[in-house]
Specification:
about 325 residues; alpha/beta; three-stranded antiparallel β-sheet; globular
Length: about 325
Amino acid sequence: MPTLTPYENYLRMMRGEMPEFVPSMGDGFGMFMTMEYSKDWRPALGTTTPGEIWYDMFGVPWVSEWNAANGSLPAPGQFILDDITKWRDVIKKPAILEDIDWEYCASVDLPKMDPDRLVSGGPNVGIGYFQTLVAFMGFDNALIACVEEPEEVKALLNFLLGLNLEMAKEFIYYYKPGMFSLGDDIAHDRAPFVSMPIFEDIFEPMWRANTAPYKDAGCLASIHVCGKLDELIPAIVDMGFQAWNPAEPQNDLLAIKQKFAGKFAICGAFAGNGPVCHPETTEEEVRAYVKQQLDLYAPGGGYAFGGYVMGPPEDPETAVRQGWINDEFEKLRYSYY
């Protein structure tokens, strides 16, 4: 029988040590910030009504995509910035940031948190640097701006970075987090959205600077980036991140796992938008896929299971398929170490 709790076991993986049993990504999530204005804080939380538009702290309109687990995306065709050189006229410090009483927020939040888990998260405006640029401008204009006006893009992102670093200082002081999480979906299914030179020139410095105060405070660090980004992983490891989710299987995850053994954990390794969510895929096939991924990635540690079904969250079929995945994982997770 294991001697560690699932959370203690997850931390062992994060620290580059061998876990007693296969961790789940869900084992490692401590309580995130729960400040009263969190609905304005992270558009990725989604809305409760399909098609409903709501506005974030910068005035970007967002809608939910019900078929993609109710994830949010900027409302198509309603972008607030069409000329990167005019960003100073459009993008202002959100009023919501002017009067945060951090001491009060911590006094409300911290008693609600599980004392056996690390305080995790990290308050950032928008959703990462690439995604926030896209939220302001749309993909086409954002990518064109990176090529034609890189200095203006950097000026805008440094403005956002400054806001994030102001909050990081207060958050670290009052919340004393043990883990920092950064999310920025800069890749699609086949490659990063930007070239390696553009990543190194524009986005890597933002990620690195945003992460630095948390690493200086002794925090563990986890990054969320969907898509195929093998070529970015060495830089991500160098920034001090110890884990990556959802680490989708179109990447060469075995090579990454081997190269950075003991330094960097693969969390996920599961195609939740693949056959597991197709109506014609049987229960036996879903369970077989869970075992296949565990057999591939569990040996040697450095891995946390992250099985999911990308589908409407209130569709009963989504819940049924998620149940098969969870049940099969729980049956197998103690069989590898």
